[in-house]
Amino acid sequence: QVHLVESGGRLVQAGDSLTLSCVASGRTFSGYHMGWFRQAPGKAREFVAVISWTSGTFYYADSVEGRFFISRDNAKNTVFLQMDSLKPEDTAIYLCAATDRWRPTWSYYRREIEYDSWGQGTQVTVSS
After folding, report:
1. Number of C-alpha atoms within 13 angstroms, CB side, residue 49?
2. Do residues 27 and 2 make contact, with C-beta atoms less than 8 angstroms apart?
3. Of 43, 67, 86, 111, which has the fewest CB atoms closer than 10 Å, so is most exposed?
4. Least confident of 34-38, 50-54, 59-63, 116-120
5. How far is residue 57's CA from residue 67's CA, in Å, rounded to a whole number?
6. Could you tell me if 60 and 37 are in contact, meaning their C-beta atoms sit under 8 angstroms apart?
7. Are strands 18-25 and 33-39 parallel, antiparallel or unpaired?
8. Rounded distance, CA 20 to CA 47, Å?
């Protein structure tokens, strides 16, 4: 497992942009696919985005595609989530997660169960 620490969350206005970071330590970061999830108050945790260990493949939830962009810097053991055109419904705790599992299709990585390591999360609040 890897140890993950998110940062960058804060209060923003609707339409603003924000970039979250997640720094990994403890294992070889480049060997992991990295995902972002979010959890709003009273709601289940939901998948946001995932990036392959090579940065060659990305997969997004429909609700964020075209507005959110995931990237990573393996030299800095960091994965990013750039969020543009934020909406009040994007308000949630954002968590990053890591997995070294191979799955036949990228849709598998929408599932929480595929990830072995989780951060504590960072709060993003979007006011209208």
Report:
1. 22
2. yes
3. 43
4. 50-54
5. 17
6. no
7. unpaired
8. 15
Contact 40, 91 (CB under 8 A): yes
% pLDDT > 70, the chain: 100
The structure tokens listed for 96 are 């990053």
Question: How much is the pLDDT for 53?
Answer: 86
SS3 state at 124: strand
CA count, 13 A, side-chain hemisphere, 45: 16
Is the CB of residue 74 less than 8 Å from the CB of residue 7? Answer: no
Average pLDDT, the chain: 94
**Coil vs helix vs strand at 87:** coil
| DSSP strands (E only) in 1-128 | 3-7, 11-13, 18-25, 33-39, 46-51, 58-60, 68-73, 78-83, 92-99, 117-118, 122-127
Task: List the structure tokens of 34.
Answer: 């990295």
Q: Which of 114, 110, 100 is nearest to 48 (CA)?
A: 110
Q: Decide if 124 contacts 12 (C-beta within 8 A).
A: yes
